[in-house]
């Protein structure tokens, strides 16, 4: 009764109103689903997201992907055991032998891979996070991750002049996950009031991930607003600040355009100045994905001095080979895990395990174009990730994941909150 009987793909819409993929995998008695997210700010080493490139939906349709799932993948995987995740993922990779999954598309493959794990959990009568813990070899008691809540947007996620992409709240001082969400929500609403008072009601429009996008230009302005909201909420030193620079989007002709042009050395000095002034404890993608010397220099100097978390996203793209390179060359100390960057659950779990064994922190992440599927909430708990990045505490595709984590924590008899164990 654990053999694949039916696989069906559907074209649905994501949070930006663009097509994406939903897959339902069934055995004779059990079923599981998955929906695939899509990024706007993407690294060039990510596995390929396949689109129709024809007129409907401005070329963003996925009808070809659905045909692949319903006609090719369903036939190939029919009769395989849903509990053999690695074998299924290997079979999916055999159907697409390219390095970046450009024949079938990482989005096509991922939808099937994740849905298989859900039906396997159903077959084993386990919660999804319990089954993912089993798959990843995590035998520790469940730990609820610290949310990284994106409350102020710039870059590719907003329509303002702010170059840095995200400013985030990290409630490390919360008692538990539910308390962390209370802290985030209260601070978010106070930030809205501060922005409204200073810039007017139009400035509280939100970006793709629910963060506000006021008419500001500099990181200092953004940090002043976030800092004021944290202080007003009474959470100074209990909520730390994170930034996602998405520097690959700002890199032209060996310089970084952050409103003014900086060399890598100049940008390092700029970060150090921000770190001396604000309670920033995490920076994601501070440099371009190929600017390795800058990453190394930053890690050995500023990051070491300030004792902060440096997250690789475009640098590592959840790819085990790129994670290994970053570990060996000491380029960062945390991994942003986005399953759609690599295309199969097995490869994502391998990347996470590799990073954990190197002593890195793991930050499981959504994408800017997401769905109401809360899969990554279970993934974060299952693998024991210390953090999860989900956007602001608004918009249904974001709150679906936050609410799933609140539910998991409430249902567990024994759990811990990762905020007490983070190194910063």
Describe this structure in words.
This protein has 424 residues and is an alpha/beta fold. The chain has 2 domains: 6-125, 2-Layer Sandwich (Enolase-like, domain 1); 136-420, Alpha-Beta Barrel (TIM Barrel). Helices cover 39% and strands 17% of the residues. The protein is built from 12 helices and 16 strands. An 8-stranded mixed barrel has the order 5-6-7-11-12-13-14-15, surrounded by 5 helices. Helix 10 (345-357) links the parallel strand 13 (334-337) and strand 14 (361-365). Helix 3 (106-123) crosses helix 4 (128-136), helix 5 (177-199) crosses helix 6 and helix 7 (264-277) runs parallel beside helix 8. The radius of gyration is 21 Å and the shape is globular. The model has no long low-confidence stretch (mean pLDDT 96).
Short description:
The chain is of the alpha/beta class and 424 residues long. It is built from 12 helices and 16 strands.
How is the secondary structure organized here?
Blueprint lengths: L5 E8 L5 E8 L4 E5 L27 H15 L7 H11 L10 H18 L4 H9 L6 E2 L1 E8 L12 E5 L6 H23 L19 H15 L6 E5 L6 E2 L2 E3 L3 E2 L1 H14 L2 E5 L7 H15 L2 E4 L7 H9 L5 E4 L7 H13 L3 E5 L9 H9 L3 E3 L6 H16 L4 E2 L7
Helix pairs in contact: 1-3, 2-3, 3-4, 4-11, 5-6, 7-8, 9-10, 11-12
């Amino acid at each position: 009764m654990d053999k694949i009987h039916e696989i069906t793909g559907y074209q649905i819409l994501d949070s930006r109103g663009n097509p994406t993929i939903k897959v339902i995998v069934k055995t004779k008695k059990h079923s599981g689903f998955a929906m695939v997210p899509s990024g706007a700010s993407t690294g060039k080493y990510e596995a390929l997201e396949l689109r129709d490139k024809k007129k409907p939906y401005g070329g963003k349709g996925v009808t070809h992907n659905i045909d692949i799932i319903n006609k090719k993948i369903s036939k190939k995987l029919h009769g395989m055991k849903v509990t053999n995740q690695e074998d299924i993922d290997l079979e999916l990779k055999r159907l697409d032998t390219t390095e970046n999954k450009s024949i079938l598309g990482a989005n096509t493959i991922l939808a099937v891979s994740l849905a298989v794990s859900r039906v396997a959990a159903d077959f084993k009568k386990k919660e999804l996070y319990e089954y993912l813990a089993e798959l990843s070899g995590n035998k520790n008691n469940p730990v609820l991750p610290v949310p990284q809540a994106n409350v102020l947007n710039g870059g590719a996620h907003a329509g303002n002049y702010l170059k840095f992409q995200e400013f985030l709240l990290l409630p490390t001082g919360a008692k538990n996950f539910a308390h962390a969400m209370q802290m985030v929500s209260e601070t978010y609403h106070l930030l809205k009031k501060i922005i409204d008072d200073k810039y007017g009601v139009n400035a509280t429009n939100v970006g793709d991930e629910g963060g506000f996008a006021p008419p500001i230009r500099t990181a200092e302005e953004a940090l002043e607003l976030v800092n004021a909201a944290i202080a007003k909420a009474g959470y100074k030193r209990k909520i730390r600040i994170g930034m996602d620079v998405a520097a690959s989007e700002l890199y032209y002709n060996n310089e970084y355009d952050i409103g003014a042009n900086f060399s890598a050395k100049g940008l390092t000095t700029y970060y150090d100045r921000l770190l001396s002034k604000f309670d920033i404890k995490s920076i994601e993608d501070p440099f371009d994905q190929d600017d390795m010397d800058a990453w190394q220099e930053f890690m050995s100097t500023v990051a070491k001095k300030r004792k902060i978390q440096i997250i690789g996203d475009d640098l590592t793209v959840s790819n085990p080979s790129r994670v290994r390179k970053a570990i060996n060359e000491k380029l960062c100390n945390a991994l942003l895990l986005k399953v759609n960057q690599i295309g199969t659950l097995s490869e994502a779990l391998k990347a996470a395990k590799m990073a954990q064994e190197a002593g890195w922190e793991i930050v499981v992440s959504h994408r800017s174009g997401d769905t109401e599927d809360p899969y990554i909430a279970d993934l974060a708990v299952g693998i024991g990730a210390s953090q999860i990045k989900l956007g602001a505490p608004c918009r249904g595709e974001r709150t679906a994941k936050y609410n799933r984590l609140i539910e998991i924590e409430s249902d567990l008899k024994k759990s811990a909150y990762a905020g007490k164990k983070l190194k910063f």
